[in-house]
Design goal:
Elements lengths: L7 H5 L2 H10 L2 E6 L3 E6 L2 H9 L4 E2 L18 H7 L9 H9 L5 H5 L2 H18 L4 H6 L1 H11 L3 H14 L5 H27 L5 H7 L9 H31 L4 H7 L4 H13 L8 E3 L3 E3 L2 E3 L4 E4 L1 H4 L34 H18 L4 E2 L22 E2 L3
Bound molecules: protoporphyrin IX containing FE.
The site of protoporphyrin IX containing FE has 24 residues, from helix 13 and helix 17.
């Protein structure tokens, strides 16, 4: 079956298609913009191996015989610097960078931030009411994770404003000229960040960027290029993904009978279980970044060549009947739930606790504040973003009577 990952029909109701993909076998061939034809690994157990077995699969294409990371020699210089980030490096480089960033993302540290995130969620809902905005994506799902990641990073306000603009351009895959302009301007954004790093070197401030500038592992600090790539990946991975979990999660809850009531009745133990089931059922990140085959081998019944590129199809693995009983059913009390929505192995999402906590606080604020919360319009006609590999709504019009 040839998947169309950006078709409105797939995005609105992917589950039966995913079941059919799984039934066809452990691999699926499809095409996505930028990468061209790609091979997806579909099953839960195989994806666990793909992500965990770094003796056989690597993220840095150079370790599988290619000349450049991602096997893309023609990246512009400004993008090459950003591309050398956690997600495209293998150990020991990856491990060293990960150790430098781990501490603020541990569960205990993140849970301390919950009251602030909850207050921010209410401020955004207040603003939506004041402005008469009923689109949850622009009023809540997008600004909440953005404010949270900015709060954590601790940039100067002028840096925030420039970053906002640059990233708005760069994520405009629907508007190629705007995106090209974003790429062109990337160099000046990097220069501004370098200046900020140097200033923080002289006088440290509160916030993760300042901590990273001063952090050391094995007696070594990060280089300026490493800092740039790190800030970039934290910023990009840290907000857009959560935005899509919130929009697809709320849409899912509002299209399933009784689900809203379950959220309203949930306590601090039940709500995280709901968030994990939404992660499984929605898969806001549909696939992993590429993994490269380190040496010729056989895997899942297929002969693979050194350097070959595979992607883990998280969305199908999350529907795998060998792992999940009754996988196509949304079960907000599902336990255990070993979904792979945050990946796995050494590159498992660094922001896993942050994303879970944000979603938990957001759902509590939204559903307790509006007992009559409902979609405003035909759910199947609502527009999804058309970027392969992500699943979230463009806008989510709601009726928000208190
Ligand atoms: C619902 C929200 C999120 C989802 C679904 C998500 C998903 C993922 C996935 C699937 C990966 C692994 C990709 C791969 O192996 O190829 C990943 C990695 C990563 N995520 Fe997240 N993420 C989310 C939120 C966040 C947040 C809030 C941050 C905060 C900073 C973050 C930072 C990262 C980083 C830095 C990595 C790379 C880790 C490494 O390579 O060691 N993510 N994420």
């Amino acid at each position: 079956m040839t998947l169309s990952l950006t078709s409105p029909a797939y995005l609105a109701a992917p589950h039966k298609t995913l079941a059919a993909v799984l039934a066809e076998g452990p691999y699926n061939q499809t095409k996505i913009p930028f990468f061209g034809p790609i091979t997806l690994v579909t099953r839960h157990a195989a994806i666990q191996t793909l992500l965990k077995d770094s003796d056989r699969f690597v993220v840095d294409a150079r370790n599988a015989g290619h000349k450049s990371p991602f096997a893309m020699p023609f990246l512009p210089k400004s993008l090459k610097i950003m591309a050398d980030n956690l997600l495209s490096l293998d150990d020991p480089h990856h491990q060293r960078l990960r150790r430098l960033t781990d501490a603020p993302f541990r569960r205990a540290a993140i849970l301390l931030q919950r009251p602030k995130v909850q207050a921010c969620a209410h401020e955004l809902l207040d603003r939506m009411e004041r402005e008469g905005n009923r689109d949850l994506v622009s009023g809540f799902c997008r600004p909440l994770p953005l404010r949270v990641i900015y709060g954590l990073l601790g940039f100067r306000p002028e840096t925030e404003a420039k970053l906002d603009h640059a990233l708005d351009n760069l994520s405009s895959t629907d508007a190629p000229l705007k995106m090209l302009w974003g790429l062109f301007r990337l160099g000046s954004v990097q220069e501004m960040l370098r200046e900020e790093f140097r200033a923080l070197h002289e006088s440290p401030r509160e916030g993760l960027v300042s901590e990273l500038v001063h952090a050391e592992a094995d007696g070594q600090k990060m280089t300026e290029n490493e800092l740039l790539a790190m800030v970039f990946v934290l910023f990009v991975a840290g907000h857009e993904t959560t935005t899509h979990l919130l929009s697809s999660g709320v849409w899912t809850l509002l299209t399933h009978d009784g689900a809203s009531e379950q959220v309203r009745a949930a306590d601090d133990e039940a709500r995280p279980v709901i968030v994990d089931e939404l992660m499984r059922y929605c898969s806001p990140v549909q696939m992993t970044k590429p993994r490269f085959v380190k040496q010729d081998m056989e895997f899942e019944g297929r002969a693979l060549k050194r350097g070959e590129r595979l992607f883990g199809f998280l969305a199908s693995a999350n529907m795998d009947p060998d792992e999940f009983p009754d996988p196509l059913t949304l079960d907000l009390a599902r336990r255990p739930n070993r979904h792979v929505g945050f990946g796995g192995g050494p590159h498992i999402c660094l922001g896993i606790h942050l994303a879970r906590m944000e979603a938990d606080a957001a759902l509590e604020a939204l559903f307790t504040r509006y007992p009559g919360l409902a979609l405003d319009g035909d759910p199947m006609a609502m527009k999804w973003i058309s970027r392969s590999g992500l699943r979230g709504l463009k806008c989510l019009p709601l009726r928000m009577e208190a």
